[in-house]
Amino acid sequence: MEITIRQEQLSDHAIVFQLIAAAFRDEMYSDKREQFLVARLRNTEDFIPDLSLVAEVDGRIVAYILLTAIKIISTNEEIPSLALAPVAVLPVFQGKGLGAALIEKAHGIARDLGYQSVIVLGHEKYYPKFGYQPLHYFNLSLPFEAPPENCMAIELVPGALKGLDGKVVYPAAFFE
Ligand SMILES: CC(C)(COP(=O)(O)OP(=O)(O)OC[C@H]1O[C@@H](n2cnc3c(N)ncnc32)[C@H](O)[C@@H]1OP(=O)(O)O)[C@@H](O)C(=O)NCCC(=O)NCCS
After folding, report:
1. How much distance in Å is there from the Cα of 30 to the middle of ligand 1?
2. Whose CA is nearest to atom 16 of ligand 1?
3. What is the rounded distance in angstroms from the CA atom of residue 24 to the CA atom of residue 37?
4. Tens of pLDDT, residue by residue, the chain (176 residues)
5. Is 34 in a helix, a strand, or coil?
6. Cα–ligand 1 centroid distance for 127 (angstroms)
7. Is residue 55 helix, strand or coil?
8. pTM of the entire structure?
9. Is 150 exposed, middle or buried (0-12, 13-18, 19+ CB in 10 A)?
10. Cα angle, residue 7 at apex, residues 10 and 124 outer, rounded to 5°
11. How far apart are CA 136 and CA 86, in angstroms?
12. Which atom of ligand 1 is nearest to the CA of 90?
């Protein structure tokens, strides 16, 4: 199976919308509105086109990932970071390495762009495969209630989150 990963284009939006809805359809924890979140985030200044990626198999878009700019407010500093939300793979293509390929690719691009960390709210058994660790390990908290095991972060640059004591701040579009 040949996987091509590329930046999402305007002409992909409708397909990506359907893809995200299909991917989350049977997820118990999902509010089934992740496709609307992506539509909103694309219209914010925190949207980073380079980090809105599709994965194609035989020319067909089957998976998508978005990393959006967020901030970490620590005791006396403000640090740019990224939120991974969502990563979505069409059900029949799940378990074939597409999610992993998108996450690794997005991490590499993010690092090249100068970002040093990524925050995620997600499956506690999935993200640790890529190096994500619980948020409390970094002395960071989210601005909303969530099970601690699902709140995770990764340092794209070793030590990037060391010595912080702060809060993750999301763009308002995350909560609309
Ligand atoms: C979760 C998701 C993105 C994973 O993508 P994927 O392409 O199916 O997963 P991959 O093939 O890259 O899996 C890599 C590894 O993670 C495991 N894995 C996949 N989904 C997992 C999950 N939900 N929980 C724990 N482990 C999972 C795979 O078994 C595989 O393990 P291995 O490396 O030991 O073989 C995808 O299944 C999906 O879109 N699910 C529905 C939407 C969703 O839940 N998105 C994530 C929001 S947190």
Report:
1. 15
2. 126
3. 13
4. 899 999 999 999 999 999 999 999 999 889 999 999 999 999 999 999 999 999 999 999 999 999 999 999 998 789 999 999 999 999 999 999 999 999 999 999 999 999 999 999 999 999 999 999 999 999 999 999 999 999 999 999 999 999 898 999 999 999 98
5. helix
6. 9
7. strand
8. 0.96
9. middle
10. 110
11. 21
12. 39
Residue 144 tokens, joined: 């909303």
List the residue whose alpha carbon is closest to atom 36 of ligand 1: 89
Three-class SS state of 82: strand
Ligand 1 atom with least separation from CA of 86 = 47
Residue 109: exposed, middle, or buried by beta-carbon count in 10 A (0-12, 13-18, 19+)? middle
Q: Give the amino acid at 14.
A: A
In terms of residues, how long is the chain?
A: 176
Which two three-digit tokens encode residue 25?
């359809």
Domains with residue ranges and CATH for the chain:
3-175 (3.40.630.30)
| Cis peptide leading into residue 86 (ω within 30°) | yes
CB 167: neighbour CB atoms within 10 A? 13
**What does the block give as tokens for 127?**
């993200």
Look at strands 52-57 and 3-7 and give their pairing.
Answer: antiparallel
